[in-house]
Design a protein that fits this description.
60% of the residues lie in helices and 12% in strands. The longest helix has 28 residues, at 69-96. It is mainly alpha-helical and 101 residues long. β1 (54-59) and β2 (62-67) form a beta hairpin. The protein has a domain at 11-51. A two-stranded antiparallel ribbon has the order 1-2. The protein has helices at 12-20, 26-32, 35-51, 69-96; strands at residues 54-59, 62-67. It is flat. The chain is built from 4 helices and 2 strands.
């Protein structure tokens, strides 16, 4: 008799991530509903809400999600600037160490 692969149970975070990504392509849904992917998805959502890039409002008991594109663009520019600074610091450290790790 062929052995059947057990499907692992999904936790609540995985289920929420799966529902939240319903309209997205299948590979994105698969990653977002995995154990690690769901935690990353939840963390990214919390950060987006906390920074004001995404707002959630309730009307008649139904949630409405809106993306603040100007704020999201501002956050992207800040992240890019921080990444450039980090790359510059790493390059400077390598130069001062003579390229030796």
């Amino acid at each position: 008799m062929a052995s059947r692969k057990k499907k692992s149970k999904q936790n609540a975070v995985q289920m929420v991530a799966g529902v939240a990504t319903m309209g997205m392509p299948a590979p994105v849904q698969k990653v977002a509903s995995s154990k690690v992917g769901s935690l990353l998805f939840l963390a990214a959502a919390v950060v987006a809400i906390a920074t004001g890039a995404i707002t959630i409002s309730f009307s008649g008991g139904l949630p409405s999600v809106k993306v603040n594109e100007a704020r999201a663009q501002e956050l992207r520019q800040q992240a890019e600037a921080q990444a450039r600074m980090a790359i510059g610091r790493i390059a400077e450290e390598r130069r001062t160490q003579g390229g030796v790790r």
